[in-house]
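Pilot study result, target chain (529 residues):
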Amino acid sequence: MTEFPTTQNAIEIYGVDQVRLNHAKPVPPVGPTQILLKMEASGICFSDTKLMHAFDHHPRKSEVLGGLTPAELAEIPTYRPGSQPVVPGHEPVARIVAVGDKVTKHMVGERVLVQTDYRHLPTASSNGSFGYNFDGALEEYALVDERVVLDPATGERFLIPVSDAPSASAIALIEPWACVQAAYAWPERQQPKAGGKALVVGDAKGTEELYAASGSVDRVATVAEAGEGYDDIVYAGSDPDEVEALGPKLAGHGILAIVTHGGSFGRRVKIDVGRVHYDLIRYVGTTGDDARAAYAKIPATCELRAGDKVAVIGAAGPMGLMHTVRTAVSDLEGLTLDAVDVDDDRLARLAKVLGPIAKAHGLPVRVLNSKNTPLEGGYTYVAVMVPVPVLLAQAIDLAGDGSIVNAFAGFAIGTLAELDLDGIVSRGVYVVGTSGSRIVDMHTVLHLVEQGIIDTNISLDAVSGMAGVPEAIEAVNNRTSGGKIMVYPTLPDLGYVRVAEMAYKLPHVAAKLNDGLWTKDAEDALLGR
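Predicted structure:
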């Protein structure tokens, strides 16, 4: 029987903005339904810093309310909701090194890409997730439970087998690329929820037809008479105060359809853009009098379309680079792309990486510093990478008729942005947000990597062992990194090293780079292989 160490190095978040390197975190015993993973590598995500800032107030740090019983959850020693310290990290690749005697779908020796978003385990306002309310990847060994890492609806595995051929970094980086994939491919609800709870405020045509299959429909004359927790709301009017009061009455995945009868709000309207991102609520509208016209504007997905004039705001950051590369390899006719940021050094790095890819796929690209080159309106697709409300508001102002504004940036729930709701309604601007990814998104990106269509390593800016993780987290938090940071938990003493600094910090590793970009050979040199 293989023996494992009893303690390990681990990064723990133990309070608001409190992070520590624990040199003696216990390696938990493997229970009957449990799987022990030896972590090869894990990326650090900006979402890790949001967990650090919010800690037990983060929607994914709260208790799991369904999918497993409290007794079953108590059997999982790495379930860490609420104020319990937790290991962050949700972008990992690992090797299965031990399984319990009741594990049926996983085998020792498998190398796995870890899908970390457990949507079958709901919390009060989100869902369970590896690295949030379950210990994550920034430790040497991670324990998961097979009852958690199997999709109960489909039987699909959250631990996705991968070959030994790609580098650990290339596989670990699939998770953030899959979040980008999900942001475009996520299915949007185009009709009222069958069996759901609906509300109609005021008079609008088409509501009887729309809500014929709803479980219940409240019809009121004023917002003050409305209840809470509606899956669908039709609001007839143009009073900004009333729309602001209706937003909190939407349930998760709820739709607020606005029928203005030609009226105008007259000012910007405060909308909780954190709920657009995490709760997937949507605002649609029509200047006419028929609510069906508002629902008709909802796209099936928020995928790019042929002929789109695309802008990525915050394009030179780690996630922005992924959005721009995905746009480049989409091979849709007539696309153009403006990659926008405010940092010339990061824009230069972006141009170096993106330029050859865009040229190979025939995509016209402009790399723009918006401090020097004011943007002109008329974009039909705007993706926003930076969680600053005014930037989202500006994206909507720049959006033309029938456009999509993808609020990819992870705004915290409760973040109010003053948005041009008149423009959203009159121009048919669809504001979308998503959080995390699905198993299908992971498989999609894995296929692109295996086929050589994308190299996820192009987004890697720095590497670290456990000793450098606090500095790496600060680099992400302060947005000083020009790309993703990869942590190798088996290297306890390695500090934070940017790829651009390797020539003098780690010259034997730098010798294996490809024109300054990370490679499998460089990883092998780093790990002493």
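One observation from the pilot: The domain at 309-432 is CATH 3.40.50.720 (Rossmann fold). A full batch analysis is planned for the follow-on phase.
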